Amino acid sequence: MTTTHHVAPTPAQIAFNRTVGWLADHGVGLAGARTLTVVGRSSGEPRSTPVNPLTVDGRSYLLSPRGNTQWSRNLRAAGECEIRRGRSTTAFVATEVPDADKPVLLRPYLKRWGWEVSAWLPEPVSHRSTDEELLAIAPLIPAFLLTPASRG
Questions:
Q1: Domain ranges of the chain
Q2: pLDDT digits (tens, 9 = 90+) for 79-122
Q3: For the chain, what is the largest distance between any 2 Cα atoms, rounded to a whole number of angstroms?
């Protein structure tokens, strides 16, 4: 499931993301932010960025409202990542969510972070949008189920 939607961050957003990432790394999850670390698909080097993990029915998810970002491409290729807040780090296996299953994730995601991400979405939608409206943008929003990686 690859998408062509991508909204590159502005210099101000890059600076803001660095601040949010620094705060998350030091235990302050601004609006629930955490730091995602995933191996770069070309460089093989760890890449980190702030993300907003979503929990639905006890399961963790990552959504990319900016579309097919570098971190979503890397996560798709690597299939695993780490999520950190402060000193706490958890390793996950990532499985891409089918488009048909995304509306039930998009609705709570937009309810919590719509104020932050609405400008990056391919269409003007909100948590009040119909399932059909959310399904229409689903192919453009990468989403991943995060399953804790087993140790050993």
A1: 11-148
A2: 999 999 888 899 999 999 999 999 999 999 999 988 888 887 77
A3: 45
Pairing of strands 88-96, 143-148: antiparallel
Helix (H) / strand (E) containing 134? helix 131-137
3-state SS record for 74-132: HHHHHCEEEEEECCEEEEEEEEECCHHHCHHHHHHHHHHHHHHHHHHCCCCCCCCCCHH
Q: Evaluate whether 54 touches 63 at the Cβ level (below 8 Å).
A: yes
pLDDT tens for each residue of 24-56: 565 555 556 889 999 999 999 999 998 999 999
d(CA 93, CA 61): 11
pTM: 0.81
11-148: in CATH 2.30.110.10: yes
